[in-house]
Here is the input.
Amino acid sequence: MNQQIEAALNDQISKEASSSQYYLAMASWAETKGLSGTAFFMYAHSDEERFHMLKLVKFVNERGGRAIVPSITQPPSDFDTVQRMFELLLAHELTVTKSINEVVDICLKEKDYTTHNFMQWYVSEQMEEEALARSILDKLNLIGNEKGGMYLFDREMLEIANASANAQKNNG
Ligand code: FEO
Here is the structure.
């Protein structure tokens, strides 16, 4: 495997691992605030990021490279408000999108069309994740500080997480 591509993919492995840990911290925080639907959503999101990482690990090894399992820095343990937490989530996903685009860029420069093709899955995944984060933030902006609204929001987060889990099951 081309060394530059291998390094870029290993860097992405590290970012997906950090994302998983970051959302796990958000899940744990939401759980301690009694937001069980939001916590469920974040636990599932953390699992998805781990899956993103594993998919890269396997790809690098299958293509003759060597995947490096990274160490991870401790994420924050307090997120202040649900709104703030989702703002951080969106900001984080935007940095992940940027780094995925950089990997795609390197693939094109190095004429590695196989990895380029593999990375397209991540490109569309990022589009979905950004859109979902924006729609959740829109809901939160509508609710404002209303307590009853937050109760309904939390239930809806549970539904979103369940719908996404079912869609993934049906897609194989
Ligand atoms: Fe794997 Fe949310 O980026």
Remarks:
- The pocket of MU-OXO-diiron is lined by residues 16, 19, 49, 52, 93, 96, 129 (CB under 6 Å).
